[in-house]
Amino acid sequence: MKLRIAALAAGLATAAVAAPVADGANKNVTVDNFKFSPATVSIKRGDSVTWRFRRDAAPHNARGSGGIKSKARITTGTYKKTFRKRGSFRYICTIHPNMKGTVRVR
What we know:
Blueprint: H1 2-18, E1 26-32, E2 35-37, E3 40-43, E4 48-53, E5 63-64, E6 68-69, E7 77-82, E8 87-92, E9 100-105
Parallel strand pairs: 1-4, 3-9
Antiparallel strand pairs: 1-2, 4-7, 5-6, 5-8, 8-9
């Protein structure tokens, strides 16, 4: 009986260690044609947003609250940010302030 309980406990310990760790979800925002698309994304705390820059006539960036601070890019590239706090985080392209977006974290 003791041997069976020990084997069962060892099996549970192994299962707990081997359990996969779930990654947060990811949402994409396309930066193209002087706009962020979609302009607003909603995610859960711990999820990420990836800004995907497309070749455009001028460089763009994404800068704002919540630590959003990509480099300016004129060619293709990406910027990824994981959000650990709930809230509404607004950002703009500082080169073209009419480009605006919001990340809502619930």
